[in-house]
What does this fold into?
Amino acid sequence: MNRAAVLLALVLAALVAAAPSQAGAALLGNLLRTEDFETIGLKGVTLAPPDDNRAERLTFEKVPGPAEKEEQAERERRDLGGRRLGELVGLKVLVFSRLDTGAGTLRSTLEATATDLIPVAGVGDEAYSYLGGTALAFRKGTAAFRMMSGDDFANRGKAFLTQDQLAALAKIVCTRL
It folds into this structure.
């Protein structure tokens, strides 16, 4: 191979590496879809706008309906003496992303940042719940992923998804790998 071809290959590789990977988000979108949330009892979940969906990460959100907005307004009148916190828009329900374990195992990768790992049986080859049950990391084969539940601020910051719901979504992803 001549020097010009090598240089061109290096430049193209650098451009591909620097560009945001829409293919990565598209792949994740094939693994987890908005309709999957209905199977776990959560209706009205949509894919967040593209600004929130970077390469290798998808964000799912729920826009509060009129009843939820009225409930929030009533709670604010009662709890805050009538002060408004602001209108609810696009609450993050779940962030779904690839997890790079590098040369380590899933467990060793998670132990670098989480101290409350709890093994979860029946999800892929290996799975752990952490952050008080609001996050789940799992591996099937060489593919590893992380799911983190968002907080439902209309419901006093309670996590949108339970540990069981996260595990159910992870099982769906594993069937599509």
User: Anything to note?
Assistant: The longest strand covers residues 91-98. Strands lie at 45-47, 57-62, 91-98, 118-119, 126-130, 135-140, 143-149, 151-152, 158-159. The helical segments are 3-18, 22-31, 35-38, 66-79, 106-111, 163-176.
